[in-house]
Amino acid sequence: MANCKIVRIGNIEIGGPKFTVIAGPCSIESESQLKNTANSIKASGASILRGGIWKMRTSLKSFQGLGEDSFQFIKKVKTEVGLPLISEVTDARQIEELANVVDAYQVGARNMHNYSLLRELGRQPKPVMLKRNFSAFIDEWLKAADYILNEGNDQVILCERGIRTFETATRNTLDLNAVVYAKKHSSLPVLVDPSHAVGISELVAPLCYASAAAGADGLIVEVHPKPSEALSDGQQALTFESFDQMMRQLEKVLNAFDRGLNHA
Predict the structure, then answer these.
(1) Which site among 36, 121, 182, 201 is 20 to 30 Å from 231 CA-CA?
(2) pTM metric for this prediction
(3) Could you read off the pLDDT of 173-190 as tens digits, one per residue?
(4) Domain contains 166
């Protein structure tokens, strides 16, 4: 395995011996939703908060995120709960707008090939999590990361989020081969997004355990107080209770490999 680069989101080190769990809603819907979720995931052992401010959706009619209307309460919640935040950037113009709101940028699967966006993210200092496109070869994914690295930003994390195959029973197919391969052929930390990979909440926890066993550096998991009422991707979000149960079992898996959780 290649020597892993340490990437820091807030005061959390990703890529070291500890396993990092990022969790939160697909979309930030309100201050109360974000604060309740942040408090719950932190109590369960997650160390970084996720939440979409702008959302890139297949349908124009789908919820596109709160945008700048959420900036003030997001900063308030981050301070009160004490968790750093990662959020997706969908346009190069959003980088500067989000600079004082987020602690790390996420590049979604659809933007993995948006090389002008990747270059711009490489010219700023905040960490960048690069999701693999659902139709991308592993080599294309690693080469996309080079667009960020080449501009001077070495704080890059890879994220496997499932690929499109002939199988239709689940949203995508989680490619754990890619996790193992990337860990051996890249020095970048590798996270797994089981929520987008499977798209079915009851299947998320087993994929979390499998990802840990495969040697991933962490997870990014969708959690919502009331998934049935979520404005986006509720079908794959864990409840507070199911997330807490998953985290308890995850620690047992990690202990079997002499690893522990990164705590905030």
Answers:
(1) 121
(2) 0.95
(3) 999 999 999 999 999 999
(4) yes
